[in-house]
Amino acid sequence: MYYDPIKKSLGEVFNRTPWLRRLFYYLLDLLLLRTWHVHRELRQWAKGRTDEALNILDAGSGYGQYTYWLSGLSKKWQILAVDVKDEQIADSNRFFRQIGRVNVQFAVQDLVLYQEPNTFDLALSVDVMEHILEDVEVFTNIHASLKDGGMLLISTPSDQGGSDVHGDDETSFIEEHVRDGYNIHEIQQKLRTAGFDRIEAQYSYGEPGQISWRLSMKYPILMLGASKWFFVVLPFYYLITFPFCLLLNWIDASSKHDSGTGLIVKAWK
């Protein structure tokens, strides 16, 4: 199914007022398991740094929820959030101006081409690389754009069932993906090729997370893809499933997994 039209519909609903957009971010933070894993890693990175003047790149910012969360941790951090979608960038710039987050700027950029040498202390790429064929070029550009000691944090599907693909005869649940998922050793090798010399990778979305993802994301998206009338049913659906998803997310984010459908990767320059 095509995920972008559904994302656009959601954006039209929650972009109506700043209050609704804040609510949307809050709901995404609770529902999306990858957010639990990413926030855990970002909290660890941020310890002792909130009083420092740092530069951060949100490489593939989407709705801007990670930029929103990071910009709330420190007013001293300057955050550049980039994406290829003009309308989404314009909406995000307008929202962040409305709420007074002047340390944030959104810009239209192609990660395959974008490079800002020795500029950023942290780069963040959440569910982006599965959409870009020229991944080594992107890793190389981000490596060049980081300062010495800077870190890249990646969240992406793995080849252990990422994108809900479990066999050679299956295709991605989301057609916008150009790859179903990374082998954990493959992505580390590509990062080394790009110049990173210290890399840590671990699985996310173990068994608890996979159940949560189906309940909180896959089934609702399938319903919305079938008909927009399911927007009416959705609140009642989440009223039943939401507590179970929260518990499953907590278990998954608090556990180490020998395998999983997602990857959390950290790489330092």
From TrEMBL:
One of its GO terms (molecular function) is methyltransferase activity. The chain crosses the membrane at residues 229-251. InterPro entries: SAM-dependent_MTases_sf. Keywords: Membrane, Methyltransferase, Transferase, Transmembrane, Transmembrane helix. Pfam families: Methyltransf_23. Signal peptide: none annotated. SUPFAM superfamilies: S-adenosyl-L-methionine-dependent methyltransferases. One of its GO terms (biological process) is methylation. The keyword Transferase applies. This is Class I SAM-dependent methyltransferase. It comes from Hymenobacter qilianensis.
